[in-house]
Design a protein that fits this description.
Number of strands: 12
Shape: globular
Bound molecules: pyridoxal-5'-phosphate
Helix content: 25-40%
Distance between the termini: 50 Å
Largest sheet: 7 strands, mixed
Radius of gyration: 21 Å
Amino acid sequence: MHPDSLVIFGDRKAKTENSVSPPIYQTSGFYANTPEEFLEMSSQARHDRFYTRAGNPTHTCAETILAELEGAEAALLTASGMAAITSSVLAHVKTGDHVIGQKWHYPGTTNLLKIFLPLFGVETTLLDTTDIQQIENAIRPNTRVIMLESPANPMMQISDLKAISKLAQSKKITTIADNTLASSINQKPLDLGIDITVYSATKYLSGHSDLILGAAVSTKITIEKIWKTNMVLGACLNALDSWILLRGMRTYPLRVRQQNHNAISIAQFLEKHPKIKKVYYPGLPSHPQHKLAKSQMSGFGCLVSFELKTEVPQQIEKFFSSLRFPLRAPSLGSVDSLIVQPAVQWSKVGGEDADLGIPRGLIRFSCGIENEQDLIEDFDHALRQISG
Ligand SMILES: *Cc1c(COP(=O)(O)O)cnc(C)c1O
């Protein structure tokens, strides 16, 4: 079924009492009628009608759609994108193991790999995953997980998901791809051989800047493992969150399509503009990995990074404050356009920008679903306010 139809039809089985909108099970638990039934409900297998930390039918409804969007067997909703990442990694490592990750992960993932895992005797190597030779050289007999993120944030590096998963499979290493920036509409890592996709569902999937939650998608056996870890961490959500997510997901493919469309138009507009130094967008032929991006993505997403020719802070500020649409806010993939200057604004979040080669003047724009022409005019106007 096409994603457009799946997000509408996918909740059909969950509808009860002839309600057109799926019901919400806003309950912390479910009761048994007999002692035998109670025993069955509390069994160790994954289930959604016992205690909501373990599952809830409203979660199941959204998880079914999430899995089907990727042609996968199963999905797990978690309290945040970081919960999905942490539980997926922890479910696959123990003391003495080794994990390979990227130099430029989402800052929370960098903290998990660089600071937290070593506390528990798990070694990590963070490298340039656009260079498969570096990965091959870093693999050790105890390497258990390769963590990837393509495109990466905010410089838009692309990693070859197919080649890396092939290499990992030959060494029995589990691959996890954070597919948040691409979205499951634009990129299907599982089809390229990746074992687990993880998401900050806070972004495109909910899409309205009103939720924090995450998801992992994989085989039934793998999701069961991640589920057990996530239950111990307690990184579960309430039924209301997945019900609001279900509403967001009904327009997920539509929104992503509009965002792809807006982003490429803005990227093309900026690339031609005399006050712009450089644009970083995988959908532009000028992106150094455009061919690879085209081979593994069907759309290029909402994030456009760029540098102005001027690096004078007052000029950059003038540009920001002259924009009407984008809000100066973190996050991405929302219906609203959002804008940040990562090297300046993320340094307080613990980013090590110097290492990561993020230019100081880099601006990261997350396209909303506003009208394309309005957005271009907004940028044009703001660029006219600054000098060369
Ligand atoms: C936002 C984000 C996360 C973290 O997700 P939360 O929902 O905020 O926990 C992880 N990875 C990427 C790429 C993100 O953009």
